[in-house]
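ok, trying the design again with the full structure, not the truncated one.
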């Protein structure tokens, strides 16, 4: 699923963008669309609630907080966001460069330019080597890179997901999360924990040591699969 936020204070242009997005992705990809007529509401969703979209279509000429001011806040929080400026003002194109937009869409050519921008953005997302996962926690919805997950473990009926420097308590069982991540870099070390082999520094038949020097127990029934996953990963690095 691709998540797209559209922010414009004019309903006509929100409807136009919605129709073009819907038409382009029909039969190709499921899309979640969110609409905003105030920049502050978009910022609250992304910056404060940390509910990250894949693409933001943002009007420049917005009241109170214009598109450039909004773009700066979004980029400071989420540098990899694919930002499409959406405006009738062609003269802003050079000023827009400082915010590193993915595309600059002129509303007078919206039918052509927005479709081309969506095609390029979708291609980039589909071919990205860096995969993300969206986690629902007590602090809201958080989008994280799968490669940054060190390990996750059962905590009652939820999971504690350990990243470098922080832990997120998420509303999933360990089996659900393991299935969703679906990466050969992750291996179950016992019935209540799954580890990213990238972060394993050393291994024995009864435990592993992470790069952080934290030690985790390896269950007897999982020792063989842990050893195999490590051999495959370390072998690929030679």
């Amino acid at each position: 699923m691709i998540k797209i936020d559209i922010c414009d204070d004019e309903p006509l242009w929100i409807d136009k963008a919605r129709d073009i997005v819907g038409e382009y992705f029909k039969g190709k990809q499921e899309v979640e669309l969110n609409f905003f007529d105030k920049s502050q509401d978009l910022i609250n969703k992304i910056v404060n609630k940390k509910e990250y979209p894949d693409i933001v279509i943002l009007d420049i000429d917005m009241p109170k907080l214009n598109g450039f001011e909004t773009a700066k806040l979004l980029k400071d929080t989420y540098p990899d966001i694919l930002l499409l400026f959406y405006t009738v003002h062609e003269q802003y194109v050079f000023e827009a460069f400082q915010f590193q937009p993915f595309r600059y869409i002129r509303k007078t050519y919206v039918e052509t330019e927005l479709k081309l921008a969506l095609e390029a953005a979708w291609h980039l997302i589909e071919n990205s080597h860096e995969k993300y996962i969206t986690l629902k926690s007590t602090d809201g919805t958080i989008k994280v890179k799968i490669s940054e997950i060190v390990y996750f473990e059962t905590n009652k009926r939820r999971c504690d997901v350990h990243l470098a420097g922080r832990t997120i308590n998420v509303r999933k069982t360990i089996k659900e999360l393991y299935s969703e991540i679906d990466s050969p870099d992750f291996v179950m070390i016992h019935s209540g924990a799954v580890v990213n082999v990238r972060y394993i520094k050393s291994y024995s038949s009864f435990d592993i040591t992470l790069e952080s020097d934290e030690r985790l127990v390896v269950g007897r029934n999982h020792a063989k699969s842990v050893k195999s996953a490590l051999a495959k990963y370390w072998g690929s690095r030679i």
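Keeping the full-length input from now on. Residues 110-126 form the longest helix (17 residues).
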